[in-house]
Amino acid sequence: MVVPIAVVFVLLYMSSQIEAQGLQVGFYENKCNDAEPIVRQEVEKAFARDKGIAPGLIRMHFHDCFAGEGCEGSILIDSTPNNVAEKDGPPNGISLRGAEVIDSAKAKLESRCKGVVSCADILAFAARDATLVTGGIGWEVPAGRRDSRVSMASQTLDIPAPFFDLEQTTQSFANKGLSQEDMVTLSGAHTIGRSHCTSFSNRLHNFSPIASQDPTLDPLYAAKLKHQCPVGPQGAIDPNLVVPMNFSPAFMDTSYYKDILFKRGLFTSDQTLITSPETASAVRLYAFNTILWQKDFAKAMAKMSKIGVLTGSDGEIRTNCRVINP
Question: Does the annotation mark 227 as catalytic?
Fold first, then answer.
């Protein structure tokens, strides 16, 4: 059943900054007026078929913004015999979901407004709409991004890893101009979706010389994860095995923060949010104030979506999001 959409927009008063970067809310109003509605329709249709599409789109937008130059659609480019692209980099690969939604929206937009709407903007719109269909609060997406002509797997090393500690994760966000507060807020996206077992299996087995499993992980939760992610006869965990991020993986709620308080953060990077007074305070605040977190999340996503954008005559408007124009 599709979650009813309460279309509530957070109004962001950062027009001078947006204009300086060449982005503008309503960018396509006089160029391709149906751009945002078409993307929203494609997201809604995909979500009705597969609830996992929504977290996939949000994650893809995040990974696009953190890798390469920034939010310029490079994550959508396919690898070639001569180049391994971002989508096949270590943090992506089989874990990426939602590219077909972008493809479908792009095809419709090309038939309606050929060569106008960038793949980077489609992905930014789709991440906002994915938040809405899972019960979150939307935001006005400043648009006008252009698409990169470069995509390299090596650039995905900028994406924060699930095994990072608090200092490492904070630094990853700082490298992109985002604060520790932004980091705590955006980490809440882990309240939806799923994870491959290999992203956290280091916490379950041979954790350290003195502990077989991570002592910051609730023992009952760890036992459940071990059952869901069994070690195979060759001593390895099947890389295709996945588990839900939490107990409500299709709803944009604050159960993620509650789980951290009860030592049920799935990733090391999640659980370490409780290891400093500042971040622990934010976790406790969000755990019991869903509306506050949803509003802050919308603002942080809008801020993130402006990282390293290409505008004006930079980059291109790809005809096919998977392929650089000839």
Answer: no
